[in-house]
Specification:
It contains six helices and seven strands. The chain is α/β, with parallel strands linked by helices. The longest helix is centred in the first third of the chain and has 16 residues.
C-alpha cells in the first residue's frame, strides 16, 4: 500500500515585487490556511515520509508553514525541492511520483500548483469517498489536499484511475465541519 498526498500551495500575493511568478509569496490568508491544513495533517496521521516541493516561493512557504503546524505531532519527513513540479502537467507529475520508487517512502506528498495538481488528482482517483470525489471535481483550491491510496508495493505502479481517493480537505471544507 502506498499513500500519495497532493497539496496545492496556499493563497498568494497577486504579483511578486520582482515581477516573476515563481517569486510570489503567501499572503496573510495563505499563512493561516497553510497552518490550518498542516495542523489537520498532523492530527490525521499517517503523515508523509517524503515531501517533494516545487521551487516556487509560495510552494516551499506553504510546506514550511504546514510543517511548523504539525511539528511535534509527527516525525520530520525527507523534504526535497523538485524543479519539475513548477508548472507541471499530470503526465510530468506522474513521472515525478514514479521516481519516488528509488527512495520508496510509504507516504509521499507533492506540494505544487494548479492546473496540474488538480488534473492529476482527478486522473488518479478511480474510486473512493463519493463526497470527496464530488467536492474535488470542481477545483483543488489553494491549501487543498487530496489523499489517495494505491494498492501497490512500488511507486512505479502508480497509474491513472488506480488510486482510491481517501479524503479531500481544504481550509474552507474544514470550517464547514
Amino acid at each position: 500500500m502506498r499513500r500519495l498526498m497532493l497539496l496545492r500551495h496556499a493563497k498568494t500575493e497577486r504579483d511578486a515585487p520582482s515581477g516573476r511568478d515563481q517569486d510570489r509569496r503567501l499572503d496573510e490568508r495563505g499563512h493561516r490556511d497553510a497552518a490550518e491544513i498542516g495542523g489537520w495533517i498532523g492530527r490525521n496521521p499517517p503523515v508523509p515520509d517524503s515531501v517533494l516541493v516545487s521551487p516556487a516561493v509560495r510552494a516551499h512557504q506553504t510546506w514550511d508553514v504546514a510543517w511548523e503546524a504539525m511539528k511535534g505531532l509527527a516525525p520530520k519527513p525527507h523534504v526535497e525541492l523538485v524543479p519539475d513540479l513548477y508548472g507541471a502537467e499530470p503526465a510530468q507529475l506522474l513521472r515525478t511520483v514514479r521516481m519516488a520508487s528509488g527512495s520508496d517512502p510509504k507516504r509521499l506528498m507533492l506540494v505544487g500548483h494548479n492546473p496540474g495538481m488538480h488534473e492529476l488528482a482527478l486522473a488518479l482517483a478511480g474510486s473512493g469517498d463519493a463526497a470527496s470525489r464530488k467536492a474535488l471535481t470542481d477545483n483543488l483550491p489553494t491549501s487543498g489536499l487530496a489523499v489517495l491510496d494505491f494498492a501497490i508495493d512500488d511507486w512505479n505502479d502508480v497509474a491513472f484511475r488506480r488510486g482510491r481517493l481517501v479524503q479531500f480537505v481544504s481550509p474552507k471544507l474544514l470550517k464547514q465541519t
